[in-house]
Specification:
Elements lengths: L1 H9 L13 H25 L3 H4 L4 E7 L4 E4 L4 H15 L12 E4 L11 E9 L5 E10 L28 E5 L2 E2 L1 H9 L6 H26 L1 H24 L4 E11 L5 E12 L2 E5 L16 H14 L9 H6 E4 L22 H12 L18 E6 L5 E4 L33 H7 L2 E8 L15 E7 L3 E6 L20 E4 L7 E2 L3 E6 L4 E5 L14 H9 L5 H6 L5 E2 L8 E2 L1 H10 L7 H4 L1
Parallel strand pairs: 10-11
Antiparallel strand pairs: 1-2, 1-5, 3-4, 3-6, 4-5, 6-7, 8-9, 9-10, 12-13, 12-16, 14-15, 15-20, 16-19, 17-18, 17-20, 21-22
Helix pairs in contact: 2-6, 2-7, 4-8, 6-7, 8-10
């Protein structure tokens, strides 16, 4: 049933029926009102929720899906979440009568086999009707929850071979009926979660969509249902047209990219993700045929909806950023995902870890493929971190706590043509804000010893990747720790002749005779004062390093992004003076000679392409 359902959920939807011909200005005003409603809902959730994942990190988004199941608007949230919402709402639309869905209802979905992402990504949504009872849109809030009621805290089970190990699945569960909270259902969902904050987070999601539903009701009342439907149609059609205009500028042909995951959680090595991007006139086809389909793999299964979303997240980054992100993008791109491969698993496969890998490798492979024709936008929209990366314990009242290891860090921020990698997060995470180290220390019995960027921690290039950070953490009470280490053998790929990023690594019990490197996975008991040191991979470089401006290399050395050794060995720059007293200077003649000896004449960005 799952593959059949996936095909139904992914079908192209028709425009909404309306007799109104709307002008572009009015359509833009209504689109702005939709965006405001999304912003208000997401902001409400961020301020009302208790979980640091939501109120500190902003790992949430809001979106509006029309009555045909088309994405009409998304907030500035986590991009891949925005593109998943519509698939879950489409399942509800297929079952309006079965679930007795009506005005004032609030629903919950998270099921990977019914249009969802991975289980922790809870989607809460509500229908919005016109005054005469016509369904116009759904408004949805999606947020990553800290637990899913499965075998292991957080919903990440390294050895899981089915979805039931990971937690509870909700294809479509009604939390509020006609404006009245279903207390029995709410309590059942909250009871199947380990964390005391969850009930408040779920209540915040409910009130957030109710707020947005009221705002959208006012907009519909002001403009009229037919005008709103015309505005939605116009916005989606405009995005599709703009996408197709972009594709016509690309040369026809098929462009391929292959990326590997180091290993699954059981140690099977080199899990393959392959993408072929075919441009033909104004159309783009992204085909994942050739992606690994070994059924015995563990932990590397991404949901169908997530895979489509990660494809679109990268495609969206390769085109004009002013194009509105909505269903029009999906109308312009054909996405082919073979049934049974790790990007569209058979029913009941576990999905928690797949939202990291192969999800990230899908975006990376699309970027590698399209870098041949759009190098100026070739920055991978991904985060190569392995999850889980968590320490877990119990407080004095017997309540479980979990530090998911996603607070402040620097990782995966690659360069792009003309711009060095900057900031601490890849742009794929949207407005995700890494919570402060001090916040985790206030909540949990841990001490964050260091968050230093690593010198030479970014890939060298004509434009340099941002360095990764070494995150050193000490636990103050007995805790258990979980880790899945990837992106060591296959770190983030450089573009246009730039170097790859540095690999990830992780050590437990640092500074003791029991210190060891986590090679694959770890489930360990840590004693008080034990130290973990997690090296995050930096961003990759873009363009040949020997073409980087020598003065900029000098500045990189002064800023401690690049070492003196790498300045010479990687960039071919000869520096005189002293770093300690800031008297460094470029020896122009010696640099020119060294670069010539290193073959700088053979390296051009055009040749690298």
């Amino acid at each position: 049933m799952s593959f059949v359902l996936n095909r139904k959920l992914a079908e192209r939807r028709a425009p909404l029926a309306t007799a109104v011909n709307i002008d572009p200005v009015s359509a833009s005003i209504i689109r702005g009102a939709f965006e405001t409603a999304c912003f208000e809902a997401a902001t409400h959730l961020g301020r009302a929720a208790s979980s640091p994942i939501i109120n500190q990190s902003n790992e949430r988004n809001a979106s509006i899906i029309d009555a045909h199941g088309r994405l009409a608007m998304g907030a500035i949230g986590t991009p891949h979440l925005t593109f998943v919402n519509a698939m879950m709402v489409r399942w509800a639309l297929m079952n309006m009568d079965n679930y007795d869905i009506g005005a004032g209802d609030v629903l919950l979905s998270n099921d990977p086999d019914h249009g969802g992402g991975h289980l922790p990504d809870y989607c809460v949504y509500s229908p919005v009707y016109s005054a005469d009872g016509e369904l116009i849109v759904f408004v949805a809030l999606q947020a990553h929850q800290g637990d899913t009621g499965g075998k292991d805290a957080g919903g990440f089970t390294l050895e899981a071979t089915d979805i039931f190990t990971e937690g509870l699945q909700f294809p479509c569960l009604k939390l509020v009926h006609r404006g009245e909270l279903r207390r029995d259902v709410f309590d059942m969902v909250a009871r199947n979660n380990r964390f005391a904050t969850f009930a408040g987070d779920l209540a915040a999601m409910i009130s957030g969509v109710q707020l947005a539903a009221r705002l959208l009701g006012e907009v519909i009342g002001k403009w009229g249902a037919d005008t709103i439907k015309a505005a939605i149609n116009q916005s989606i059609e405009h995005s599709e047209r703009r996408c197709r205009e972009e594709f016509t500028r690309w040369p026809d042909g098929t462009y391929e990219g292959t990326v590997f995951i180091d290993h699954d959680t059981m140690g099977t090595k080199d899990i393959k993700v392959h993408v072929a991007c075919t441009v033909a006139g104004d159309s783009l086809t992204v085909d994942l045929t050739g992606t690994d389909d070994r059924q015995e793999l563990v932990g590397v299964w991404n949901t169908f909806a997530n895979s489509r979303s990660y494809v679109m997240t990268q495609v969206g980054a390769m085109i004009d950023p002013t194009i509105v992100k909505n269903e029009g993008m999906f109308n312009a791109v054909e996405i082919v995902i073979p049934e049974g491969c790790i990007a569209q698993p058979p029913p009941n496969k576990p999905a928690a870890l797949g939202s990291f890998h192969p999800a990230c490798e899908i975006t990376e492979a699309v970027c590698v493929a399209l870098s041949a024709i759009a190098p100026e936008r070739a920055q991978p929209q991904l985060y190569k971190i392995g999850m889980p990366n968590a320490v877990i314990g119990f407080d004095d009242n017997g309540m479980m706590w979990m530090d998911q290891g996603v607070d402040c860090r620097s990782m995966d921020t690659s360069a792009i043509q003309g711009i060095d990698g900057w900031g601490s997060c890849p742009s794929s995470l949207g407005n995700l804000l890494l919570s402060q180290a001090e916040d985790a220390e206030c909540r949990f019995p841990i001490l964050n010893i260091s968050r230093e960027m690593t010198i030479d921690g970014g890939g060298a290039g004509q434009w340099r990747g941002s360095p990764g950070s070494l995150n050193v953490k000490q636990v103050l009470k007995p805790t258990s720790a979980m880790a899945w280490m990837v992106s060591a053998d296959h770190p983030l790929r450089g573009m246009g002749g730039g170097d790859d990023a540095i690999p990830y690594s992780n050590h437990f019990n640092v500074g003791t005779p029991e210190e060891y490197k986590v090679e694959r996975t770890a489930q360990a008991l840590l004693q008080p004062q034990a130290v973990i040191a997690y090296q995050h991979g930096g961003g990759a470089g873009f363009g040949p390093p020997l073409l980087r401006d020598a003065e900029q290399v000098k500045e990189d050395v002064l800023d401690e992004y690049v070492s003196l050794t790498a300045a010479r060995a990687k960039y071919g720059v000869v520096l005189t003076g002293s770093l300690e007293d800031y008297t460094l200077a470029v020896d122009v003649e010696a640099t020119a000679t060294l670069r010539k000896d290193m073959g700088v004449g053979e390296f051009t960005l055009e040749a690298a392409e």
